[in-house]
Protein: Glycosyltransferase
Amino acid sequence: MSKETDELTATEVTSSASSSTNFDPTVVDGTSVIRNQTRNRTSSGRSDFPIIVHCHLRWDFVWQRPQQIFSRLADNHRILFIEDPEIADGEPHLAIDEVQPNIVRLIPKVPQALAINADKDAEIFLPLIRKALREHPLLAGHFDDPVQWFYSPMSAPGYLGQFGGHGLVYDCMDELASFRFAPPDIADRERFVMSKADVVFTGGFQLFESKSKHHSNVHFYGCGVDVEHYGKARLEETEVPASVASLPKPVFGYFGVIDERLDYELVAALADRFPEASVVMAGPFAKVDRAELPDRPNIHWLGQQKYSDLPALVKGFDVCLMPFALNEATKYINPTKTLEYMAGGKPVVSTAIADVVRNFTPIVQVARSPEEFVDAVERAWRSPDAGLIAEGIERASAATWDATVASMRRNIQEAVFDTAPASAIAH
Structure:
């Protein structure tokens, strides 16, 4: 729950400011390694620098990489988590609240008529955010000299360097240019933000190989997992929710975003092959029309689930599914749920996602055709491999988010506050 909620409106800002960054993609050479050498640096590292995050994902959406990272960085840093604008009635304004200690969320609210593009958003909201940083009780005095951290490059030209500070982090968790409805200039904007970044993180090894060609300080940090949380799926006292416990067995289950990255024909084929089984698809819909998804009596679309309820959900699965389509949107993904399923002590079956094949076989059974996938699910259900499940639990236990975040934090301190150069590293 948020600690405090407040709003700041455009009429409270007396000057009509516009973004000082006019984005011109032609100034960036995307084929070369470029690092910003003009930023003022200090040779003495800082351990408590504030962080301003620009994220296209909602804090209250699916609990994933950004939430895992910043809920831990908040132990040592003040975090301002700026989401993409939301459509709202009235004049432009900011909704500001504290979602957990040391993490303040800021949501720009804009009327439909003014929701034009990312540059217009920055023109509208930059003066409002600056005023909030000066005057809002949750922000004033807490975000001097911040490090800026971008997830989507779309907002970077309008906000980069606009709050003072020492450094810039780009955390590339997906190849957003390959996603459905991606803005046509997103690749140009990514080249821009990478040209200014002090350090680049990637969520997948394929992404690491791609981005390392264009920046000299790239670090691969793949999936982490909260083992204590997902390990509750292995506890006797954890109660499977009625939405799953009441279903016919076996239960083949997936949790995560329901979007264009999934292979819905594969989901339907699994349901058709085992009409006595239940196929559970738990998660929010994004960029897909529910009416166009498979409609079978034994496919159960459960909608978005609370993060706290996921271990109990997994406990009810006989086999955990990763039925991803093999397309441009999935070429670079490294699904966080892989280790989460493994921590829950369940057999896992996936399509041949490159990072899954590289990082998690043979613990995860990988199928390269619909027939192989269905057969692998049946084997995992009828004859689960206790040795592989135990190996998965051990592997998950060694891949904690705590260790990942501690290493990221060191990378930032070295890149932003020290003068020694770093190089591309796969952790």
About this structure: DSSP finds 14 helices and 17 strands in the chain. The longest strand covers residues 93-100. The chain has a mean pLDDT of 88.
